[in-house]
User: Which sequence fits this backbone?
């Protein structure tokens, strides 16, 4: 009797760990390249142990067939990757905004290391993403992600059929909204850039021999920095509002 109970508890812990661990492979702030894999593993295991007691009555029993067990674990891994991907997709708004700002401010050639994607990225995009990640932890907004993982067991119970259509539609909608938000965040820079190019065009027509580009480029960068400073707080507030609404649309936050 005791071995059967131990096997059942280990199975329940494994079932929770598969979803939690899969989500943390992609989830922003926890799945970054500079976060040690061992630390993510221990965090996922700790959360799984904490959720084992409250979720134990709602978890399915250990399947008798290995194939059924494999299907159940695979479904949990897919759900974890879906939750992590949805949370990660919302951060694409900052990358889109940063890339748009870089191309319209003359900073597109200044590529530096992006800690969020572990690749080279533009300076404005890295600045926005890094600041958002810092604020994510400073304001305890990462608790929404952890609470959302626990709440996902009520929205997407283990053992139920995966809602592939709803998952694809929701992920596509989040990407669409992230793209639209990225353009809105970069709208002030776009406006300043258009006005700058118009002024440069008028000046070039009035003085054809004048080297407008070499004079206007530093002014364009300075105007871009000033515009980012003025719209920075409002832009991040709009992003975190979108982030909370995105988690709510996933059924992971109120």
Assistant:
């Amino acid at each position: 009797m005791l071995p059967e109970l131990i096997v059942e508890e280990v199975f329940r812990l494994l079932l929770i760990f598969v979803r939690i661990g899969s989500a943390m492979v992609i989830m922003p702030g926890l799945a970054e390249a500079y976060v040690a894999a061992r630390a993510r593993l221990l965090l996922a295991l700790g959360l799984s142990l904490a959720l084992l007691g409250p979720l134990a009555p709602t978890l399915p029993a250990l399947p008798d067939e290995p194939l059924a067990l494999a299907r159940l674990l695979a479904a949990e891994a897919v759900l974890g990757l879906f939750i992590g991907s949805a949370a990660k997709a919302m951060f694409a708004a900052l990358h889109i905004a940063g890339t748009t700002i870089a191309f319209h401010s003359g900073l597109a050639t200044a590529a530096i290391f992006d800690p969020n994607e572990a690749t080279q990225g533009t300076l404005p995009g890295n600045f926005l993403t890094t600041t958002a990640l810092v604020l994510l932890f400073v304001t305890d907004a990462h608790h929404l992600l952890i609470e959302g993982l626990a709440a996902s067991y009520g929205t997407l119970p283990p053992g139920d059929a995966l809602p592939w259509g709803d998952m694809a539609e929701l992920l596509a909608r989040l990407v669409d909204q992230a793209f639209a938000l990225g353009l809105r965040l970069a709208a002030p820079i776009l406006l300043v850039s258009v006005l700058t190019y118009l002024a440069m065009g008028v000046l070039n027509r009035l003085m054809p021999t004048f080297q407008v580009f070499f004079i206007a480029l530093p002014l364009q960068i300075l105007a871009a920095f000033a515009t980012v400073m003025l719209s920075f707080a409002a832009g991040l507030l709009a992003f975190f509002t979108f982030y909370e609404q995105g988690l709510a649309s996933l059924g992971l936050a109120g």
Q: What stands out?
A: Residues 212-249 form the longest helix (38 residues). Residues 76-249 form one domain. The radius of gyration is 23 Å. The mean pLDDT is 80.
